[in-house]
Write a sequence for this structure.
């Protein structure tokens, strides 16, 4: 085994060592990753899979979470589950349900929505929609993401569920599905209302779910734009998340403010393939929330790294056998990517084992599951990724078997 592995040694970007071997008759491979990630200048404390910054910085915001998007690892937290009002960060759930409706095909971004008098009459942050007028879904989404428009939120809620109250029920159902056990919604805007609360941890959960919808980023980076109303009137809008312009790598976020909630912010930033999420609730002023989120991002990017171990866009160099198919083997790819989050200069060794399905019989369609890869650290499984077929394989018919017999006979001669 060691000789085989040594003969197949590959050095990739001086970071990883990949070694492959075959086990018995199965299409099984073994990969050993060994990479060196520098230790940060600041110490860390690891507890139950979380990484906490040790005296890295002080924050004045009442509740805080800094986390890695891909692995879900919490880097720093303070009162992360304290029940607090979150103001307009409630709109993260409104946007999430909107994009999920679009993905389900219930409507499209170019569809029209008629704005009710109720929606047009919303107070607080708004873009002054015209009652009984039609607006494109994408214009309403833009106004929510960029300008935190309450009127657009209610218009979307009424389009999806018929009323804001029915939509709020959906919001709470979705929160429960996501494991947001410290959240209760009572409206879709975040305007002050008794009984509504969340926490920094739950906000990070729903924000991460929203970021899985790539179309969100078509809007989140807009700095200044305008909403053109049906009668020709224009409303200029500017992004309430100032970090999209002033912080390198910030590509999305949601602000919030009420006198009850204080200044809130959930933001995302990405550098060198690592995306960090930061949530602050109840900062004393607007400048503080942006400064503290920036400082936490700086700490995360300076001290941690997120390495791609399994790439969903890279076919696996391993044969997978198909029975009764017009092809004997198929090419396969991971269904999802897998990342490992770590402090820089931290030594980690991983073993990755491919386990094919016990029996794969044609016909096979691209996307069908054919096995999975298991990722181990120190002999302990830390994750798995489904492996799917990258191509269609049709089932053999009678004439295919006749052709096989002829070919075998020709070879035998």
């Amino acid at each position: 085994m060691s000789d085989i592995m040594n003969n197949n040694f590959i050095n990739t970007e001086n970071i990883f060592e990949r070694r492959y071997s075959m086990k018995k008759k199965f299409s099984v491979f073994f990969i050993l990753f060994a990479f060196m990630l520098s230790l940060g200048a600041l110490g860390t404390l690891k507890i139950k899979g979380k990484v906490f910054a040790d005296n890295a910085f002080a924050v004045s915001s009442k509740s805080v979470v800094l986390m890695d998007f891909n692995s879900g690892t919490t880097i720093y937290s303070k009162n992360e589950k304290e029940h607090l009002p979150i103001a307009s960060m409630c709109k993260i759930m409104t946007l999430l349900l909107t994009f999920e409706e679009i993905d389900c095909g219930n409507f499209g971004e170019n569809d029209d929505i008629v704005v009710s008098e109720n929606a047009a009459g919303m107070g607080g942050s708004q873009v002054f929609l015209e009652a009984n007028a039609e607006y494109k879904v994408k214009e309403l989404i833009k106004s929510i993401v960029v300008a935190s428009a309450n009127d657009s939120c209610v218009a979307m809620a009424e389009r999806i569920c018929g009323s804001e109250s029915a939509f709020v029920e959906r919001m709470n159902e979705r929160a429960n599905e996501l494991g947001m056990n410290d959240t209760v919604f009572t409206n879709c805007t975040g305007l002050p209302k008794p009984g509504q609360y969340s926490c920094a941890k739950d906000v990070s959960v729903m924000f991460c779910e929203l970021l899985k919808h790539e179309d969100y980023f078509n809007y989140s980076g807009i700095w200044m734009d305008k909403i053109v109303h049906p009668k020709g009137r224009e409303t200029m809008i500017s992004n309430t998340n100032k970090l999209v312009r002033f912080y390198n790598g910030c590509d999305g976020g949601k602000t919030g403010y009420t006198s009850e909630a204080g200044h809130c912010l959930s933001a995302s930033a990405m550098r060198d393939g690592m995306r960090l999420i930061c949530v602050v609730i109840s900062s004393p002023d607007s400048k503080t929330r942006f400064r503290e989120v920036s400082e936490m991002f700086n700490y995360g990017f300076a001290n941690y790294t997120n390495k791609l171990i399994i790439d969903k866009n890279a076919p696996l160099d391993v044969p997978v056998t198909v029975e009764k198919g017009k092809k004997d083997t198929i090419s396969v790819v991971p269904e999802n990517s897998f990342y490992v989050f770590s402090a820089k200069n931290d030594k980690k060794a991983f073993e990755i084992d491919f386990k094919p399905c016990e029996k794969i019989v044609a016909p096979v369609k691209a996307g069908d599951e054919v096995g999975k890869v298991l990722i181990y650290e120190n002999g302990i499984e830390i994750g798995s990724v489904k492996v799917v077929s990258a191509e269609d394989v049709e089932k053999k018919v009678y004439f295919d078997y006749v052709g096989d017999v002829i070919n075998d006979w020709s070879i035998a001669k």
About this structure: The chain is about 25% helix and 30% strand. The longest strand covers residues 262-271.
